[in-house]
Design brief:
Length: 97
């Protein structure tokens, strides 16, 4: 009898960014994480090994570096997958005025 593995509920920030395709390599994702540009639940993060949990709110710089993106972590992945599957790891939090 084979058991299904437990879903991953927590993951390193740099790995999560890589699996969600916010960077092309782990070193780029580590630079984003350690550069002080990411916030987890409104707390600035300066370590790539910071833990991301399902349900956390992340604030990231947008690709043009002019604005920010606010996302909610929906899931963690065991490895990097295709772009459509990577988009299932998070949902964009709409702006409220």
């Amino acid at each position: 009898m084979t058991q299904t593995p437990d879903p991953i509920m927590t993951q390193r920030l740099d790995l999560w960014l890589l699996h969600a395709r916010f960077g092309r390599t782990r070193s780029i994702c580590a630079k984003i994480a350690s550069g002080g540009h990411v916030r987890i639940n409104r707390q600035r993060v300066t370590k790539a090994h910071a833990q991301v949990h399902v349900g956390d709110i992340l604030t990231l710089p947008s690709p043009d570096r002019q604005t920010v993106i606010v996302i909610r972590v929906v899931a963690c992945a065991g490895r990097r997958q295709s772009a459509p599957l990577a988009q299932l790891l998070y949902e964009i939090v709409p702006e409220t005025v």
